[in-house]
Amino acid sequence: MSRVAMDKEVKDLRRHAAPQMNGGQFLTFSLGEELYGVDILRVQEIKGYTAVTKIPNTPSHIKGVLNLRGTIVPIVELRIKFGMPTIDYTTFTVIIVVVVQDKVMGLVVDAVSDVLDIEKKDIQSAPDFGNMIDVAFLNGIGKSGDKLVSLLDIDRLLLDSDVKDSSKNLPAAA
Amino acid sequence: MSNEFAQFQEAFFEEAAEHLAVVEEGLLELEQHPEDLDLLNKIFRSAHSIKGTAGMFSFNAVAQFTHKMETLLDLLRNGQKAVSPSIADLLLKATDCLKTLIQSTKSGAAVDDETVQRLAGELASASASDSQVSRVNVSGKVAQPVSAENCGGDQTYVIRWTPPEWLFQRGLDPLQTFKELKSIGVLTGITLDMSRLPGLDYIDPETCYLSWAMQLTTGKDLKVIESIFEFVREDSTLSIEPVKATGKEEYAQNKAAASGEQETPKQLGQILVEGGLVSPGELDRALGQQKRVGEILVEQKVVTQQQVEQALQKQRQQESVAQVKKTDTTSIRVDTAKIDKLINLVGELVITQSMLSDLGSRFEMRQLPVLLERMVELERNTREIQERVMSIRMLPVGTAFAKFPRLVRDLSAKTGKKIQLILSGEETELDKTVIESIGDPLTHLVRNSADHGLEHPDARLDNNKQEVGTIRLNAFHEGGNICITVEDDGRGLDRDKILAKANKQGLISENDKPTDDQIWPLIFKPGFSTAEKITDVSGRGVGMDVVKRNIESLGGTISIKTTKGKGTTFILKLPLTLAIIDGMTVRVGKETYIVPLLSILESIQPKAEVIKTVVGKGELINVRSTYIPIVRLYEVFASEPQYTDPKEAILLILETEGERVAVMVDEILGQQQVVIKSIEQNFHKVEGIAGATILGDGRVGFIIDVRGVLEIARHGSPVAA
What we know:
heterodimer; A: alpha+beta; CATH 2.40.50.180; 5-stranded mixed beta sheet; 4 helices; 11 strands; 42% strand; B: 721 residues; alpha+beta; Four Helix Bundle (Hemerythrin (Met), subunit A); Alpha-Beta Plaits; 6-stranded mixed beta sheet; 47% helix; extended
């Protein structure tokens, strides 16, 4: 298969894999005691945490931007995004670089853990907590052994609020 | 089929544009030197190339039109006709028409058929009408397409031929058959049926898998046609059916069939005609009765004529929008030598890199000098590669100048002034993006010079000037910038007139005694025009303010030098490239920002007494008796500063769109060239920040957008931090 065709296939996979949770391979990482997973096809690379440049006048969960081999990549601190308490960075703190609709973004997480195969039958839809907790960015809950993995819909998580110009939110913020 | 052709077509359009430029340029020069045969040959060759390639892609309209131009050019070339101003003018018009034809072929838009037909007719009559000699020549040249029109009573046959499979084995060539057919009439609408062609694995090169369908218009008998197939008749499937039609109509029909077949399936009428079931005349009548949806709706009183017109208008708009999207890709032609050099350099880079990694894997302290040496090499390599890559984007500024000879010629005709245009420094190289963006401002300046700057010939003679006015376009390097000057020897700017207008608009009060340098920039103010009347050429809509804004958005500046009665010079100063800017790195707290050097007027460490406040808050600094508002950068960007007292900090006096502002930072780190990186690529636009760059330590630094910073300072930060 030609390189181009392969790239196209990967892109197609990327596009189709996320919406319906058909099971597959997930890169899992931890935030505190909790385990989260992202579709492995969406992950571009994992790199150690390095200092970022803060972007002025942006929400606090946007950590800043990073120079990734000449590309400017925005970094999202998932703990702040999820409203969890922040902790000091350790040697395990990493940035997971993901691709969200042709945009490259980084997620700061406590530690990466595993690549897990989760079958479709082991995925149940995201629980409804009502108004208490917003779970719109969850694609479902995966089970692997006795572990529970929250499967993230990174398109919804990152794109809607962060990448697109959030100018329409301005009046509310001001 | 058409998809595979697409990339070649793209190349055709590019090439055609180049050839057209050559033709146009040549024609303009030809006006000055009508007897220059080399020039004529050059024009002819380019026109011929367009015709040839257009024919190859079945862009028949383009090919036919070019053919008519070529015929006329050929007569000029052979000396059978002399180059007269009217002919040159006609050819220039034809070039324009050809340009639109090609453009519409590319975008699939509708063509103004009337103009095309009219010009084609004019070309034909210009070619024919003159001398007897030329007439003979013309009819000889264009015999092929015309002959069909002459043979009014000819019969058209639809021929379907499937040759026997053993055709090649017996050494017979179907091409020979076609040649013979062509010799007795006009062969059109040849289609090849390859459906029986097996896969490459099974193909037998000696077996004929092909079959053809074609139309032949000839005065010869059916027997004669059949005799041509005599040798290949055996085992062939051959049908020759006459089509009931007169030759002329049929010819037109064939043409349509020939041009349509490439990309679209045949239309019903066409199939019926080809099958001989309906004559083209009958078909035309039937089509004539057909009405457009809009007309039917109007007749039934469902909608009004006006509504239909509006809807059609909308449709056209959408079509044009679609066209714009279609032609969005840009490409660049690069000298192969530049690429070769680049490849060599990359090779060297790889070698240096492997030497370094080799050294690194078993490094000992005593090898330090070697390491340092390698590092120097690496640095040299990288810098050279950077320069080379940049140079790929560089084009000679002449490409932006190329359209001006024509423009000035037309302006000269329109305004009745005698103008000569002198270009110099065309070889000066400039970034492609910059070149594309300066086209419009330059055009405006040249138009301005021709319309307002230069006087009418008699006025010039009265003032002891040469009758012919001069506009001079010059480009040259100056420091790290490119300067482009537009100079005319006209009447110059009128100080009193500008002053009067400025007073009227309240820009300057009556008592002010402004200097010249303060007055001239007034013409860049929006809505400021001293022209008494709006002419067709300039004075409408796009003003000098737009020119200034365009130049400034490119990171450039524009200035004016003028002497009354002697002329005006506009000086544009542009950065070499948009990808790199000169910046001042400044520090605020722990953050490093880059301020574009072009916007910095000066930097000062203020004394306490020069800082004043208004209503206790708004701070102003007195710089040589002008009060300039102070903006604290740390407040705008909500960061932690080292100093909050202006006396300890540094104030950068910046200018944006004529406004001055003093921006407070902790420290100036230095001046350097920075490569601009897009934040928007992976994020959205951030207010107050023009872009990002990678600093020396590998971290990201932001380039400040002075205008944006000023806006935030005035209206508060966009996101409550």
